Amino acid sequence: MDLASFITSVLTSFVIFVVLVLLFTWLSRRPGNAMVYYPSLLLRGLDPWEGRRRGSRSPVGWISDAISASETDVVAAGGVDAAVYLVFLSSGTPISDEHSTIISIDLLPFAVAVLSILVYSGIILLPVLLPVAGTDNALEGAAGFSPIEKLALGNVQKKSARLWAFLLSVYWVSFVTYFVLWKSYKHVSNLRATARSTPEIKPEEFAVLVRDLPRPSPDETIKDSVDSYFRALHPNTFYRSVVVTDHTKADKIYQEIEGHKQKIARAEVVYANSKTESNPEGIKPTHRTGLLGLIGKKVDTIEYCSEQIKELLPKLEAEQKTTLREKQQRAAIVIFNSRSAAASASQTLHAQVFDKWTVMEAPEPRQIIWPNLPRKIYERQIRQAVVYTIVFLIVCFYIIPITAISAVTTLENLREKLPFLKVVVDQKEIKTVLEAYLPQLALILFLAFLPALLMFLSKAEGIPSQSHLVRAASGKYFYFIVFNVFIGYTLGATLFKSLTTVINHPTGIVNMLAKSLPGSATFFLTFVALKFFVGYGLELSRLVPLIIFHLKRKYLCKTEDEVKAAWAPGDLRYNTRVPNDMLIATVVLCYSVIAPLIIPFGVAYFALGWLVAKNQVLRVYVPSYESNGRMWPHMHTRIIAALLLYQTTMLGVIGLKVFLYAPILVPLIPMSFIFAHVTHMRFYPAFDKTPLEVAQHELKEAPNMDAIYTAYIPQCLKPDKLEDLDVFEDAQSHTTSRAPSI
Amino acid sequence: MDLASFITSVLTSFVIFVVLVLLFTWLSRRPGNAMVYYPSLLLRGLDPWEGRRRGSRSPVGWISDAISASETDVVAAGGVDAAVYLVFLSSGTPISDEHSTIISIDLLPFAVAVLSILVYSGIILLPVLLPVAGTDNALEGAAGFSPIEKLALGNVQKKSARLWAFLLSVYWVSFVTYFVLWKSYKHVSNLRATARSTPEIKPEEFAVLVRDLPRPSPDETIKDSVDSYFRALHPNTFYRSVVVTDHTKADKIYQEIEGHKQKIARAEVVYANSKTESNPEGIKPTHRTGLLGLIGKKVDTIEYCSEQIKELLPKLEAEQKTTLREKQQRAAIVIFNSRSAAASASQTLHAQVFDKWTVMEAPEPRQIIWPNLPRKIYERQIRQAVVYTIVFLIVCFYIIPITAISAVTTLENLREKLPFLKVVVDQKEIKTVLEAYLPQLALILFLAFLPALLMFLSKAEGIPSQSHLVRAASGKYFYFIVFNVFIGYTLGATLFKSLTTVINHPTGIVNMLAKSLPGSATFFLTFVALKFFVGYGLELSRLVPLIIFHLKRKYLCKTEDEVKAAWAPGDLRYNTRVPNDMLIATVVLCYSVIAPLIIPFGVAYFALGWLVAKNQVLRVYVPSYESNGRMWPHMHTRIIAALLLYQTTMLGVIGLKVFLYAPILVPLIPMSFIFAHVTHMRFYPAFDKTPLEVAQHELKEAPNMDAIYTAYIPQCLKPDKLEDLDVFEDAQSHTTSRAPSI
């Protein structure tokens, strides 16, 4: 790629970005769009305009708002997970400690994690490496090299002493990464400890998830056996247990009732609206009972649905009873009457045999994946092994079926197989467009559905909570994109052609990467620029949600609830967001020494990303769960993985320059492993388990144990009144073994 | 080796064995030797002859006694560790369940672990493989092969369909091993659970070892900070803590006093004996105060020692106070008032940061290695890494310095360097003998000191308890002997010559092993026979301890205590015993299919070993610690390691016969890994931690907490009376923060 096309490409991206930001500034100030641009604020009962700071109405107000918001604000709006994500992108310590509202742009250079790594690296690498490379002349005489390439490692002569600068830069970048990661892990660890020791009462801190229950004796239910087992082992601290049930049928009836209720609400609004002056009686809304409301008998909606509800309610009650008594599954949530008792119980081995009574910390009620809880330990192991194999095959060989499908679905084939398409296909313009895009169609569809596919696969592993699921899917997606986009693009077809060579000589892949990397520098420069300008522009302007919301509100929504559902912002979707950022981090890290010019682009990407994400966290997204930053150890490990890839390729790249001292880089690789081991040993246990120190904190008030208990009862089984809890308990056991009231 | 020399060798061994057994039978029936042959019985206050069963006085009485003793008897005599060792050798389930006194030889075939593996394997392999191999003729025409070699795999033609029998035999042996190991692990796991839930009060079940204490604030001692920390986190269950102190100086004074006390006792006996009729006054014993009692002033021993004790006692008291107050170290034993509280606390993460307040189960008081407790977590990690590196170097390259030393210390060199040896060396007979043995001298000395060296290295890792130390040293010794005796002998010099080939092609070593193994079959047959006949003969007859005891009693011992010390039997020394047995198991396993004739020898080795070990456990050895069978997971893992070595070499051996279907063996290798993983997952946690189920058992009586507390106070610091405990407590803290009495 020559300089002109590079500049064109970056400029185009920049123009698109400016247009999108202007659009955002204009659209977000229109009150009618508040639901799209400030849903998080609205849901927390805040007015997006009144009481906001002076900057809010100025075009760049959102920037100063985002920068000045403290970490406490972020935790309040988006939870610890969002705060941890922001630490990952860039910042952390300085701002959180101050709770300041001043515009703290000057604090940014001290910010941590990826942004800090790049900033610290850039401070040294740019002023040192650019002149060192620029004043050499290895490329002189070679045709068609761009000024960008002249400022990179490629321009340095073989065996040149200038390579020392590059070699030491690798050390600098590595040490900066260690330093920043250590500080960040410490910071996140404190963040997590603080969040876990707030005086608020959280049901999950009183509960323990127990799986692999043994088969109970014939004269007792599973509930009975759980109660007696835990009462015996924790006589002073056991409160009650919720046995997991197979409540799909009860849930179906419950949802049906809810559906009818919604229909009635909607019909009443329609009915009220139809009472115009000309027709004061109005028209009673009707619908057909058959398929999709298109066929079948025409009925009065309100009457019909009320009747249906009346019919379904006793059915639900009967089904609830059957579910509670007969559909108990071999897993349970056990609730203790103190947080430290629960923390301690979740970490203690209960049974002599490991595959019985396995305990772990209970997830939040809202993020439990009920069907996965009763899976046996061996089943979980086997499922995990199968899923990992499938993912491995997808990561390495997904291109094969995609290519095969593309080959089969050529235009000619489609024309023959589906003759009715002929009319369309035979038109010349359409044909041209289709011919251009059809080959990629399978690939595009595959990539679009990949995150969902990975979520599905991770769910099949038997993971008990949504946050864990997101972490698992995010890991898989990370490997996919780093392997396919970064390594895949760099090596291109050579990798697959010489696959046998690679298998026989694993070191060969490093050499191949080393040979190919410098050539792709400009491509990745453009790639990063495109990603951040267009990606963040779209993210900030929320054009797609805006259009969908307005369409829905105009043509579909009748009741307030429906409107609310139409602007529901969802959460940050870490499962695709984190791997994509990690890809950029990997790319920038790997090129930081080869072509230091990439660093400013990386800094811009993460600074802008931090700004936009902070804005979105504060104003838009609503977290659907809180895992108190359990994502961090994964981010940490993956940054180290990227660092290792970087160190290995640099060893190859500098080695290819026939530089005698290249082996000086070798110690970096074990050093990274030791760093990973030490940080894991030091910080990870507090992410995996709850330290007693943390669980021992004071509570705001004496916990309402019944409320904690009820939080773990699925919606469709919940008794209407708290007083019914004892009846609910009794329904589950053969003997009336009621828990002693505390 | 031809047949004649093989038979000669085995017969010689057998004759030695018979002589030793006869010696044992004769010697063990002489009352004067009871202390050598029945020390364990004597120490438990049992009479070796009265009340013993009818068989005891018959020559083979010990055999029936050993066979009929139940596992409960074994646990009573030698602890769970000894019982587990017997399970490892051979038996277990059948005998323990019956508590029978009948001679249960017919039960032996059902016995488990190594013996069972070999018996089950032999049942199929011997009748099938011997005829299959014997009737082939690959060796015909080759010169100098023995009938033994004709009955082995070497006699089967290449590509022959007979190889199917050998291939399937590998599967049979593998499955037998899985089956037996699974049953044994289950059995040992129950044994451990039973032992841990006895109603006896054991101090270690109430205690938790806490290491990596943080630096206390300046106005409190370490003891204060431990007490306040644990009282805050376990308000209802914390009892008291014993802070580890650097008590070497106090211990030195204490030992000095004890030494003087012993001297007085001895002098009094000598004095009493000297009062003969001719000299009714007697002679007061005297000694010199200088070096080794050879120089210096001559003093009256009794007077002198009494004075010394009088002088030392106040010194000891002062030193005790200083130690308690000022020499507190950053580790502590924390005692809880219930077993389940201690079990739960030892498994719960206490601090947010992992390298502070790390907890683990407390070892028994008698096996604590005090100086290792205060080592920091990072120090432990680094020490471990260094020790592992040293051991790796010793295992692989110990032969290099040994050879170098041998080369330097030739007779000629010695003669030149140490001229005074000339007189000795120049005599012809001595010269011949020295020339024969001197080269091996360094090797012999090295091998003799190796177990001690490995114990020393393991101790340097920072391991907190004696039993853990023995496990660690045993593992290192296992790798040493398997690598050097088995692989080393088989491959011989070829391995070291072609070391570079091996490093480049790791699969090459398998091929080399496969080529060399069949040739060494006869050597290992002889090796196993020698090992068991001579080894067990010596073990049973206890000739060396017998001679040492009689010499000591005659010339050295004066007081009863000294006699008792002279026959103190020690414990089983698992650190060398288990690896040696494992070596035989590895050898027999690896040859089981190549030369099935080795199986009867292996069966004899383990059956006899089981018999002798059981006899020694019941009558001789006294356990010096009890780890409730924590050795088992290590034995289990190492049997699997041996199995993997076996499967890999068999793949090579059958592959070398150009047998097309050899790859059918490949799935066995992942299968073994999966088996290891599943058993580890299922059984190991109950060995690593105490399950609550087990800790919850009823106690015989309410525990005497003061006695438990005192058990963890080192001998030299122990207050004389239990009432002084509070004073003892106060001596350690700045503030008087006495524990609330329970």
TrEMBL record, chains A, B:
<feature type="transmembrane region" description="Helical">
    <location>
        <begin position="385"/>
        <end position="408"/>
    </location>
</feature>
<feature type="domain" description="CSC1/OSCA1-like N-terminal transmembrane">
    <location>
        <begin position="108"/>
        <end position="183"/>
    </location>
</feature>
<feature type="transmembrane region" description="Helical">
    <location>
        <begin position="658"/>
        <end position="678"/>
    </location>
</feature>
<dbReference type="GO" id="GO:0005886">
    <property type="term" value="C:plasma membrane"/>
</dbReference>
<keyword id="KW-0406">Ion transport</keyword>
<dbReference type="InterPro" id="IPR032880">
    <property type="entry name" value="CSC1/OSCA1-like_N"/>
</dbReference>
<feature type="transmembrane region" description="Helical">
    <location>
        <begin position="107"/>
        <end position="130"/>
    </location>
</feature>
<dbReference type="InterPro" id="IPR003864">
    <property type="entry name" value="CSC1/OSCA1-like_7TM"/>
</dbReference>
<feature type="transmembrane region" description="Helical">
    <location>
        <begin position="6"/>
        <end position="27"/>
    </location>
</feature>
<comment type="similarity">
    <text>Belongs to the CSC1 (TC 1.A.17) family.</text>
</comment>
<keyword id="KW-0407">Ion channel</keyword>
<feature type="transmembrane region" description="Helical">
    <location>
        <begin position="631"/>
        <end position="646"/>
    </location>
</feature>
<keyword id="KW-0472">Membrane</keyword>
<feature type="transmembrane region" description="Helical">
    <location>
        <begin position="583"/>
        <end position="611"/>
    </location>
</feature>
<keyword id="KW-0812">Transmembrane</keyword>
<dbReference type="Pfam" id="PF14703">
    <property type="entry name" value="PHM7_cyt"/>
</dbReference>
<feature type="domain" description="CSC1/OSCA1-like N-terminal transmembrane">
    <location>
        <begin position="5"/>
        <end position="96"/>
    </location>
</feature>
<feature type="domain" description="CSC1/OSCA1-like 7TM region">
    <location>
        <begin position="383"/>
        <end position="653"/>
    </location>
</feature>
<dbReference type="Pfam" id="PF02714">
    <property type="entry name" value="RSN1_7TM"/>
</dbReference>
<dbReference type="InterPro" id="IPR045122">
    <property type="entry name" value="Csc1-like"/>
</dbReference>
<feature type="transmembrane region" description="Helical">
    <location>
        <begin position="163"/>
        <end position="182"/>
    </location>
</feature>
<dbReference type="Pfam" id="PF13967">
    <property type="entry name" value="RSN1_TM"/>
</dbReference>
<keyword id="KW-1133">Transmembrane helix</keyword>
<feature type="transmembrane region" description="Helical">
    <location>
        <begin position="477"/>
        <end position="496"/>
    </location>
</feature>
<feature type="transmembrane region" description="Helical">
    <location>
        <begin position="516"/>
        <end position="538"/>
    </location>
</feature>
<feature type="domain" description="CSC1/OSCA1-like cytosolic">
    <location>
        <begin position="206"/>
        <end position="372"/>
    </location>
</feature>
<dbReference type="InterPro" id="IPR027815">
    <property type="entry name" value="CSC1/OSCA1-like_cyt"/>
</dbReference>
<keyword id="KW-0813">Transport</keyword>
<protein>
    <submittedName>
        <fullName>Uncharacterized protein</fullName>
    </submittedName>
</protein>
<dbReference type="GO" id="GO:0005227">
    <property type="term" value="F:calcium-activated cation channel activity"/>
</dbReference>
<feature type="transmembrane region" description="Helical">
    <location>
        <begin position="437"/>
        <end position="457"/>
    </location>
</feature>
